[in-house]
Amino acid sequence: MPSSENRSLPAVTVPALFTRSYLALAEEHGHARQQVLRRAGISASHIASGHELSLPEYLRLLSAVGDLLGPQVCIGVEMGWRIPPTALGPLGAAVLSCPTGREALALCRRFWRFYGIGVTLGISTDDDVCTLSFQTQPAVVPAAHRQTVLEAMVAGFARGILGLHRDASEGIVIWFDVDTPPWASSVRDRLGNVHWGMPSCCIRFPEHLLDDPLPNASALGLNDALSQCETLERLQGKHTDDIAERVRHELVWQVDGYPSFEAVAERLHMSTRTLRRRLREQGVGYMDLLNMARRRDALSLLERPVLEVAQIAQMLGYADPANFTRAFRQWTGLTPSAWRARLP
């Protein structure tokens, strides 16, 4: 991505809980934490003090643990499965206190931009099936770590769903958009009905689960946790009325494409006329933001060699691949094929 976009990225830090969990996994397989930290170039005293890791440090830790444990251990799924929803702090507490899964997902959507940095979350329902779609942002998550990050995200959500609906295991289907890995058997043992080489990375489950009462529902707990979420938002300086940013957050690619302008307005609880006016006040239009989302997702999809350029064009909503190539050249100065050829 251009340097101007990289400079706009937030300063990402990773909670110490995640660091300790990866180190514990390595220790279970016979690798002392000092060995792992030395390999990752991270100070042991920094970890001992409980400090959060920067994103570059965290990614180095992932590489070190992955190299030491080898291809038979899926570190992403192991971490996603081990770390409970409460690791998300007040958002995790709010989700667990919701009366139904539908409200829980609405909260995830609302606060995702503060907790899911580097990964987009799409939520859709069709033919009585709810689909949670995940995709990494190349400017934040390098291609070398994409699979691990997605596996951790999917495993974490799958654990959450099963924890709230213990009889739902047979109804959950998981897709990964990469080739079948060496650790496929262990992933199926953990997650159940898993398929690789699919069109997207997602979790699919019966929509009726969204409306089943949740076992830990608590109005008082929800109000308290939600208040903490909003307070944390303000303390971090991330609360914003930037309507363009809010629309960008909603423009997440899903199996059936991007949400329409009307759908985005509905999600933001305003009329199309009001949304159009507020975007115009910021000097931007819906199509401008949609094309930004297409650019973001095109860069990510081109990292997957199993997808032909024509397939990517269709997925992004271009009926004619030539129009996609023309748009991509405007974004990057290169054709999609030339961009892909430069990837490591």
TrEMBL record:
GO terms for cellular component: cytosol. Residues 241-342 form the HTH araC/xylS-type domain. This is AraC family transcriptional regulator. InterPro entries: AraC-type_N, Homeodomain-like_sf, HTH_AraC, Tscrpt_reg_AraC-type_HTH. Pfam families: Arabinose_bd (PF12625), HTH_18 (PF12833). GO terms for molecular function: DNA-binding transcription factor activity; transcription cis-regulatory region binding. Keywords: DNA-binding, Transcription, Transcription regulation. It comes from Aquabacterium lacunae.
